[in-house]
Amino acid sequence: MSVTDEAIEKIKEMIVSGELAPGDRLPREADLAGALGLSRNSLREAVKALSLLNVLDVRQGDGTYVTSLEAPLLLETLSFILDLHRDDDVLQVFQVRSILEPAATGLAAQHADDEAIAELREIVAAAGEASTVTELVASDIRFHVRIAEAAGNPLLASLIESLSARSARARIWRGLTQQHAVEQTVAEHQAILDAVDAGETELARSLATVHIAGVTQWVRGAL
């Protein structure tokens, strides 16, 4: 392990243990380096790395603070990495979605409230009236993100939002090239929503699995 990695691990441990909480200001550089047994140079490199990951916020002339550590902020780096992936890597994105989204849909069937169900019905209705494939895919992304939000786990919702946006181009291409893809997507969304609304956890999870698997199969064939 490099000295910088060691410094990162020590700062991370301070956060995980609660010694540093979200919003806290880090001790002066010299004091922190001495307390952790680090050189000031390795500490600076660790702070720089953690600031790039949105764990720390370096404020010029003020000090260094622990960020809010909220999931959307921490996952911005993941979104950036996903954006840099090549198109032929999108299959991996769908494979991860096939793991996460059925679980999220099952949780949504247990936790979705009336407001979430109403919003989901509006999204499905809008998808059915979409005049272009691009509009349909935008509704498709909103549907999956809202399902994940209804699951009640912000971290899971943020992960799914990042992955869902990354797969938008593949979904548009499918809508343009696969016969009945638009109608099938709307029908599958409706079935998933009905299961979530009815609180049918296993049915909702199964329908989501089939839904994602269908798109994954098409992507695999297209590549």
UniProtKB/TrEMBL annotation:
Residues 1-69 form the HTH gntR-type domain. Gene3D superfamilies: GntR ligand-binding domain-like, Winged helix-like DNA-binding domain superfamily/Winged helix DNA-binding domain. InterPro entries: GntR_C (IPR011711), TF_FadR/GntR_C (IPR008920), Tscrpt_reg_HTH_GntR (IPR000524), WH-like_DNA-bd_sf (IPR036388), WH_DNA-bd_sf (IPR036390). Pfam families: FCD, GntR. Keywords: DNA-binding, Transcription, Transcription regulation. Transmembrane segments: none annotated. This is FadR/GntR family transcriptional regulator. The lineage of its organism: Bacteria, Bacillati, Actinomycetota, Actinomycetes, Kitasatosporales.
